[in-house]
Every structure is written in C-alpha cells, then in structure tokens.
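Title: Prediction job returns without error message
Component: structure pipeline
Severity: low
Priority: P3
Assignee: unassigned

Description:
Job completed but the reporter wants confirmation the result is attached to the right record. Sequence as submitted:
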Amino acid sequence: MVSGGGSVDNNLLNITRIVDYIETHLEDKLDLDSLAREAGYSKYHLHRMFASIVGFTVHSYVQRRRLTEAARLLIFTNQSIMEISLFAGYETQQSFSVAFKALFDCSPQTLRKKRDFYPLQLKFTVDGKKQLRGDMIMDIKTIESEKILLTGYTANTKNGFAVIGESMVQLQANKEEITNRTDKNCLIGLNDYTKDFICEDEQPSFDFYAVAEVTDFSSIPDGMITKELPASKYVVFSFTGKPQDSLQPVADYIYKEWFPQSTCQFNENNMYDFTKSYEAIDNDGNSNIEYWVPII
C-alpha cells in the first residue's frame, strides 16, 4: 500500500506511485475502490487529487492508457482482437470496439489494416507543474490539408525567443485589418526551419511567423507579409491551455516522446510546424490549442 501523507510532496509522490501501479497492472481490475485502497486515501480524496494533478479522472486515464496499449498490440502483434479486448478490460469484443472507436475514431479492425500507431495517452509523468504538457493532450488526429495561405508578421529568433511574443502582440493589435481571415477566432504561430536553421547550445535560430489564415492574397494590410504552406498531411495534437503558457513542454513531448513511439514519419520537404490558438476562453482562462506537424 502507498503510504498517505498531508504535504504536497507526499501527495505528488503518492500519485506517482499510483500512476506506476496502474502501469504495471493494466491487465488487472483497476477502479477507484482498488486504487484508493492501494493509495491509503478515501475514494473522494484520490479522485480529487488524481484529477487535479493528472488532468483526467482515474477512470478516464486508465481507459486511455489501456486503449493506447491495445492500439499498440493491434499494430505490432498478431494477437486476436478478442485477446486484446480482454487485456484492455472489456469482456466482449463489441464493448471494446465501441470504446476504441470513441477514442480513436475508427474500429480496431480498421486501425489494424491501416497500421498507423498514434499513441493517444502515454504514461503520465508526475511533476506537480501547472503548465501545458504533452501527456495531457486530449486528442490526436491526421488531416489532409490543401495549401494554406497566411498573412501577418515575421521575425527570427537568433536574438532570443522574445520576438515570438512581440510578434503575436503585434498581430493581436492589428488583426482586424485582415478582412479576409478564414476564421476570425483563430491565430497561428508558425516555426519555419527551412532557411539557415541553427540550433546552438543556448539559442535555436529559425523564422517565426505570427499570422492568420486568409482566403487569398488580394488585400494584404500595409507592413504585413504573406506565407504559403503547400498541401500536406498533418498530425494534429489538440489540448487546452492558457494563452500565456509556454508551448515548449508540449513540443518536447511531441518530438522526444510521442514521435519515437508512433509510426508517423516527418515530411522532410515541409520543415515547419505551427500552432492554432483559438481565442474563446473558458471560465478557467483556458482556450483550445492545436499543434500541427507535417508528416508523410
């Protein structure tokens, strides 16, 4: 049993141990009752603490982990779908298929034929930091996009990342001048690594674009530039966060943890990525954000 404690450090340590316990017992019965006994907490306190730290309820997190590992088994093993259903905690193949499709937007049979592994929920790393983070991504999907036309401002990061925020502030101040935006509730931050990309120990250098998507380039406001992205396939990561939060933890997760475990391949002809930030903010100050990466 995990020993209980009243301090924040003890709570973080206990949730870490519960996450580790879940990871080694994915094939066993895992519910709030059994995990509360393992943690030495009441069900109420475990539910509140787990959801606060991990960002998902115990049930949702366990389901996402099991179904992600089920997807891995579908792609990389020859186990039957019934066997994988039982591993994921479902007594029937039908109930497993319903849950799987709700999460991955396709049936287990379709995923096995496609052989595309997009791990929706990797193991959560408990660190207690209240920030955007990759292992709290809500959804992952692929999109086939036509060319994307952009207009706004650009700067290079060779002298520091402050230009990113400055460019976005400039775009916010002048966005109403862009009369042909495709979505008036969305702004884009594009990192372009095509030209003279330098990644030194202290300061990576690349072109940043604070832009909005437009229907055409017929009426570009004075002082703004244009940028055209070619038609491409993208993997799109959706999550919520505060506009002022750094996206670096999300980028680190995507490139250092998610991609190595997925079957996705980078599109080396499209050396950029971008975020779409939607301007509607909920009661907690969070908005919807998407991180787009070109793939083949």
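Comment from assignee: result matches the submitted record. The two ends are 47 Å apart (CA to CA).
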